[in-house]
Amino acid sequence: MTIRNSLRTAAVLATSTLALTACSADNPSAPQKDQASESRTTGPEPEQPPAPDRTAAPDDGGGSGLAQVTGRDSIVLTITHVERSASGKSITVSATLKNTGTKSFFGISAYGGTDASIKGRMHSLAGATLTDTGNNMRYYVLRDTAGGCLCSTALRALKPGETVPVFAQFPAPPDNVSSADFQLPTFPNATIPLGAAR
Question: How far apart are CA 114 and CA 21, in angstroms?
Answer without folding.
Answer: 76
